[in-house]
Amino acid sequence: MTVTTTQPPQPRLRVRAIGCALIAAGLLQPALGADIESVERILNTARAFAAETAGTSPGQEIQIEIGQLDSRLQLTRCAHPPTAQLAPGGRTEGHTTINVRCSEPVSWSLFVPARIERHLPVVVLERPINRQQVIGPDDIRIERQAVSTLSNGYFTEAEDVIGLASRRRLMPGQVLTSAHVTQQRIVKRGQEVTLFSARPGLIVRMKGVALEDGSEGARIRVRNSSSKRVVEGYVEPSGAVRVAL
């Protein structure tokens, strides 16, 4: 089922059935002398809870898949609409389980498997990227993707990744995550750098050799070329290393 609104950009909701529900023990026994609970009402309860749990935001598309119930299921009809909650360990995104319950006139409970998937426009690679390559505007595109499995985060704006460097070789079509990129390396190990210390009215400069790579703001070790002493300092945008007096 697809639900859309007329005020773009609004999220879309798609719902379909998946798998088989996990039925609590004893729920396949006939409910003698009582009305039978509608399977459709049980599924609708789980579906409505999943939609409420997923929430909505402009530009998003939410896809909800609800498990099917065993055709032999016979439960005493609930005196009021059944309630629903996440089962212990259930997640608000990805594969999850919803617990549908009734308390009157008899108490019953069952677990319905579901999948709640959020689709967002995210940054995707347009072409191969080599390790330590700086990412430019032509290297990426914006594409709608499922995001529940992107545990390392993702980017929704191209400006957030342009100018960053790749941590490793990446292939076209990959969703770019925070694990893939880092600040551009300014200083390389073995590179000669300028060490400087500053305080009001005084600036001291000296030469040194970087003992490790460093991006802007990174703290690295540098060997003073004159004293041979190893000091630590912070990489400036210019490539100089600021150390304490």
How does this structure look, described?
It comes from Allochromatium tepidum. It holds the Pfam family ChapFlgA_N. The chain has 245 residues and is mainly beta. The chain is built from one helix and 16 strands. The strands form four sheets. Strands 1, 2, 3, 4, 5, 6 and 7 form a seven-stranded mixed β-sheet that branches.
Topology at a glance:
Elements: E1 2-3, E2 12-20, H1 39-54, E3 61-68, E4 83-86, E5 94-102, E6 108-125, E7 140-146, E8 165-166, E9 181-182, E10 185-187, E11 192-199, E12 202-210, E13 214-215, E14 219-224, E15 230-235, E16 241-242
Parallel strand pairs: 2-3, 11-16
Antiparallel strand pairs: 1-2, 3-6, 4-5, 5-6, 6-7, 8-9, 10-13, 11-12, 12-14, 14-15, 15-16
Top keywords for this entry?
single chain; 245 residues; mainly beta; Type Iii Antifreeze Protein Isoform Hplc 12; SH3 type barrels; 7-stranded mixed β-sheet; 5-stranded mixed beta barrel; elongated; disordered N terminus; flagellum; periplasm; bacterial flagellum biogenesis; signal; Flagella basal body P-ring formation protein FlgA
